[in-house]
């Protein structure tokens, strides 16, 4: 699991705000993987301690399981691996030792992970060997930054934070526009097939070994698809094309 270590971001108007990993976008997949019997190794650029965005600790993001907020806060306060994560450069030298790679979301991704060449190399490596790759909320933006002609995910169906959700976050949370935005349009321009659900609704998409999700409310659906991708890979690497999970909006 690759985490941002950025604790601050500069906005388009020059102002700065605290940022980092979105707490439930780390905690929910971490807990799901550990509960399923997996060992989760944490890595950051340079092995720096990851930061968590204060916004992600508001109860409004934990309505389905309010008690999980306290559980998540207790976990990140005591988890030894968060104090001494592996450097991404080290992970890259022994990438074959890992079954999958997962990048939680949060604005921190856009600060120190978006252009990280070690992470780009890992995504290409895992994709080329059909191992599961999970990208949450803002993290699918990484796909648009992979070296031209090297993406093993070209043409795949993906989702990410939507344009409306970006506008909402900038207007009511951040107070200014982000320097990097329009993730969906960038994914379309890079040759992916980007789709989103209604703002604030759960949306997760699996296309073969690539699993992406839209927002902090998509954790349950993302975890289901990511664990299925892991199970398939462990059982001879069967590729399941274009599965998506979204709420039923029929009358």
Give a short overview.
By secondary structure, the protein is an alpha/beta fold. It contains nine helices and eleven strands.
Computed structural class: alpha/beta
Largest sheet: 5 strands, mixed
Order of helices and strands: EEHEHHEHEHHEEHHEEEHE
Mean pLDDT: 93
What is the third-level CATH name, the topology?
Answer: Rossmann fold
CATH architecture verdict: 3-Layer(aba) Sandwich
Helicity level, as a percent range? 25-40%
CATH superfamily: Class I glutamine amidotransferase (GATase) domain
CATH class: Alpha Beta
Keywords: Glutamine amidotransferase, Lyase, Stress response, Transferase
Domain DJ-1/PfpI: 25-227
InterPro entries: Class_I_gatase-like, DJ-1/PfpI, Prot/Nucl_acid_deglycase
Family: Belongs to the peptidase C56 family. HSP31-like subfamily.
